[in-house]
Amino acid sequence: MKDIIFEKCxxxxxxxxxxxxxxxxxxxxxxxxxxxxxxxxxxxxxxxIPVRTGIGRTGVVGDLEIDGATRCIALRADMDALPIQxxxxxxxxxxxxxxxxxxxxxxxxxxxxxxxxxxxxxKSQLKVNIRFIFQPCEEAYPGGAQAMIxxxxxxxxxxxxxxxxxxxxxxxxxxxxxxxxxxQSDIFEITxxxxxxxxxxxxxxxxxIVIGAEFVNAAQSIVSRNVDPLDSAVVSITQFHGGDAKNxxxxxxxxxxxxxxxxxxxxxxxxxxxxxxxxxxxxxxEATYTFAYQEGCPVTYNHDPCVEKVLSSAKTLVGDEDVIxxxxxxxxGEDFACYSQQIxxxxxxxGAGNEQEGIVNMCHHPQFDIDESCxxxxxxxxxxxxxxx
Length: 389
Description:
Helix content: 25-40%
Oligomer: single chain
């Protein structure tokens, strides 16, 4: 079966690359993925797979139904791009300024189309129904996964699988782990209000920039002094805005950032300690503040039975030595987590890097790219999972 799967992958490869490059040139953001969704829907309809559109606003769902099957597995791809300017020199570079597929969702969509073609060709050998899920808005919260779940995308589904291209691993590798794999990703925004004034008379002001700077420094101690060293967590201040003139102390500043955790108790501790620090520092300087904390996608959790199926398929395809298991959890976030909170699930990294070609930049980097041969392995894995009993 391994040889048949890879033969089918190679058979469709050139066309899947063309689809990926077309999507790459026409990136769409958030829920506004109508063009990409049409590509997915048209591809499924060409295979005589019943299609539903407008799921979760702009998502696409196709059901490959097998006579006598009593179980259903879902395969999910995300479709949205990022609001980043691409800085690569590829001939299929984004044609839209400020938007680019720098996380690989173009490849995810193309690979799932390829998988649908392969499984349709091998329909007589399928023992389970297959649901193909093309999801919008993975990159923003609240994302497309929850919207699709609200529209019933998991109704009748027993298991779900997702893959992600990952250039930190070379092509031909698969990587996953049991339990928590990706972090809960929260965001926060803070406004510190003091008293502005002339920069030459700071004693007549309450300087919010100084207060904000002290908070930024103090926040660095939260993980190192409030979280068990054996637990994983990140607190990053990523925004600091204030002032319009070089000779004026502004009346207020705004700060923003993110918290990444793998355990709920750690997340609660960090969010509480952030505000505790803010209370103390603001009081010491006689300033006021607002603190808005938004919980994001939950932890992406891999369930043992699904992990075992992934390992079995992956090892059959590439051998034990090219399956990296178990990897340490990654503190990136993924709204695939919403599915994994509802039904058994497994998320898998598919190696997409190529050091010799300079393809080494991580997702969301302006020069992110993939070795497109990784799509052979992505299609092979998802097709193999569909063919399991």
